[in-house]
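Section 3.1: Structural characterization of target chains.
Under the original work plan, the team committed to producing a structural model for every single-chain target entering the pipeline before any wet-lab resources were allocated. The record below documents one such target. The sequence was received from the expression subgroup and is listed exactly as submitted; it comprises 319 residues.
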Amino acid sequence: MVTGSGGLIGSESVHFFCSLGFTVIGIDNNMRQVFFGEDGSTDWNQKRLLESYGERYIHHNVDIRDLKKITKIIDGKDIVFHLAAIVGVEETQLSPWEVLDVEVGGTMNIINAAAHAKVKKLIFGSSSEVYGDSEAAMHEDSKLAPRSTYAAAKLIGEEYCKAAQHEFGLNFTILRYFNIYGPRQDQRFVISRFIEKIIADEIITIYGDGKQTRDFTYIDDAITMTMLAATSDISNCQILNIGTEKSTSINDLLNTITSVMNKKNSIIKNFVEYDNIRSKEIEVFNRTASIAKFKTLLNYEPLTSLETGINNLVKFYQP
């Protein structure tokens, strides 16, 4: 079972298991379009999965805050991937109570239902946001200093996984994702937004000076790492980073995108100050994963360079 099955990681997780012949139950309420007027990418992902896999993919339009429905759906499932979330800086800042309700209340429902259904493993999709800001690479034992409601809620979810293991014997793996990107990701995320703006010949807006860094991880690598963690006993009750160990500034990211698109001399950049929606107080200026633990336990490291990943994404937008 996959919650958030319409999102990038969720839909690709469904695709992975369905392509191997498994039956997958997807849960997504598609509410981002209702609240934020999004472009329908979530609905599009659901339609693609239903058309591709037929009876092997069963979709439930259910809110994870509906405990009664969640309990019924989760019964008899082997592995539960809890990937549902309210994401995006603007969305989480504008709706902090909604974030807490979904990320804390909804997550508690999933964990409690999974524990009582005695699922074999729960995969909890956490976030690199729990680390806060750090000039050093972030490893799983690093100091945690969440700087936003979203980050704090993710950390609560992690702690509740641990509590459920002690109380109910729930087997879990926590995955802290670092800036995952790929085809079919909506425009709220920086790489897709930059590419779409360049295609439309629109101004590129960059907050601050563009020197803030991120660890951009291509979806194929993220899914491979997710599935290795989900299907290995070595990862039981572990916290693992999902990243690349490569740090890229927003300025360098834009340069890479414009180089791949042959648009280096034709874009206009607009550097803007932080504001009430995207405040400087919650901005993370440096973010790089350490995946030493993942490499040691599961013997894998990402294969896709940023240039290759962006090239794949550009081909998706410009076939």
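The radius of gyration is 19 Å.
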